[in-house]
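help with this record:
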Amino acid sequence: MDLTNVVMPGAQSLVTAIVTDSWSQVRTALSRIWARHRGDDGPSGPSVAALEAAGTELDLARQQALAVAGDGSESERADRMQLFWIGYLAGQIAARPELADAVGGLPVLLDAQRGASVTMTTNTKNFSGSARNAVQADDVSGGITFGR
């Protein structure tokens, strides 16, 4: 296997996710993959602890990539981030060879994540009724129930 052909496209995709603000969706998808390959899956998939550990690992890598990017033009920063992610992904594959297929599939996965529909609505007043697939940040109060 040519490691360059596996990690280069994945690194490019991760940089694109960071510079286009789609990191949270990418982090969620990658956390599932990383956690699945940690080997502590339960009957319904990776445990919550494994998902959190994978997410923390990815967030740390993102912070390091941004630090490595430093100052300069957007193009220069993206190039330095890409170099970081190439090394990071190569290190992940060296430590866990079973990740090679997942890393090789990152461009397709991340393209699908970027293509997902996201709608943001801010409601600073009262809301009455029902909503599907809603996320609330900050304070939540009142007679709110969550269910499926």
User: Anything to note?
Assistant: The chain has six helices and two strands. The helical segments are 3-19, 23-36, 48-69, 74-95, 100-104, 106-115. The longest strand covers residues 41-42. Confidence is low (pLDDT under 50) at residues 117-123, 132-138.
